[in-house]
């Protein structure tokens, strides 16, 4: 399955909109923080989809 290029480009340019890591690029979030979201549950909508993708990227490289 080929990743959606537009989604990945948007992901690369999206910053965390709130919280401790506000204004940090999603891909630069610490792994433990993304794992915490995975355990807690990702938010609904585009941000949640992006955080889930970041989780998979950090998990699988």
UniProtKB/TrEMBL annotation:
Q: Which Pfam families match?
A: QSregVF_b (PF12843)
Q: InterPro entries from the entry?
A: QSregVF_b
Q: Which domain of life is it from?
A: Bacteria
Protein name in UniProt:
Cytoplasmic protein
**Organism (species):** Xanthomarina gelatinilytica
At the highest ranks, the source species' classification is: Bacteria, Pseudomonadati, Bacteroidota, Flavobacteriia, Flavobacteriales
């Amino acid at each position: 399955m080929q990743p959606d290029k537009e989604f990945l480009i948007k992901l690369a340019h999206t910053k965390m909109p709130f919280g401790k890591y506000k204004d940090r690029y999603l891909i630069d979030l610490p792994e433990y923080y993304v794992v915490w979201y995975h355990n807690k549950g990702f938010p609904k909508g585009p941000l949640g989809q992006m955080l889930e993708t970041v989780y998979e990227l950090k998990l699988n490289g």
